[in-house]
Automatic annotation (TrEMBL):
This is Uncharacterized protein. Residues 30-40 have a biased composition (Basic and acidic residues). The chain crosses the membrane at residues 66-86, 98-114. It comes from the Bacteria. Residues 1-40 are annotated as: Disordered. Keywords: Membrane, Transmembrane, Transmembrane helix.
């Protein structure tokens, strides 16, 4: 109506009604874009060459374990058969000597396990290492690449209480280390990730 002013007026700088909570800035402003980027999850992926190298390591570790199992099976089998053959040749066949052959079950089981390791295809490393959301970090599973490079299962950590650090290493270069009280730390080689570790550190610190 003429002469009547509305009690709802926009703020001078933001264009928002007075008294409304801050919602991340006016669309199109730098503050709005920064808030939107923080709300979007940061997906950190493994580099393709790192995935190929990991698969090569897994295949090599399985071949070594499979061949070692077959060699041990052959050795144990010889330790059982040679005495049995020698005793049978000297004293003749005796039924009680068959009990000694029962020990061949151990090398036989080793041989079966070794052959399975050699035939089993290696588990490929997934494309995604982890994703950082406004509330949590979701880790994807990492298959083991041998005793020296143990794997890690999938897990979710709340952002609160999680820290991220970059630790230099002369042997493997910079490492991204994520820690949380009561949980096993997560370590990633910076050279294997497609995201700069400093970006991950700032994202976790700014959540």
């Amino acid at each position: 109506m003429p002469g009547v002013r509305s009690g709802r007026r926009d703020g001078p700088a933001t264009g928002r009604p007075r008294g409304t909570p801050y919602d991340g800035g006016v669309p199109g402003t730098p503050e709005h874009h920064q808030t939107a980027r923080r709300a979007e999850p940061l997906v950190v992926r493994f580099r393709p060459d790192a995935r190929r190298e990991h698969q090569r390591r897994v295949a090599g570790a399985r071949r070594r374990r499979g061949r070692a199992a077959l060699a041990l099976a052959a050795l144990l089998g010889a330790l059982v058969l040679v005495p049995w053959v020698a005793v049978t040749a000297v004293e003749g066949f005796e039924p009680r000597g068959l009990a000694l052959l029962g020990l061949l079950a151990v090398p036989a089981a080793l041989a079966v396990w070794g052959r399975r390791l050699l035939r089993r295809p290696p588990v490929a490393l997934g494309a995604v290492a982890f994703a950082i959301t406004p509330d949590e970090i979701r880790f994807e599973p990492v298959p083991s690449a041998g005793p020296a490079l143990g794997g890690s299962p999938a897990a979710s950590w709340p952002i609160a209480g999680t820290t991220a650090d970059i630790e230099p290493s002369r042997m493997v270069g910079d490492r991204l280390v994520l820690r949380r009280p009561g949980a096993r730390r997560r370590v990633y080689l910076a050279a294997t990730l497609d995201t700069d570790p400093t970006t991950v550190v700032s994202q976790i610190a700014g959540r």
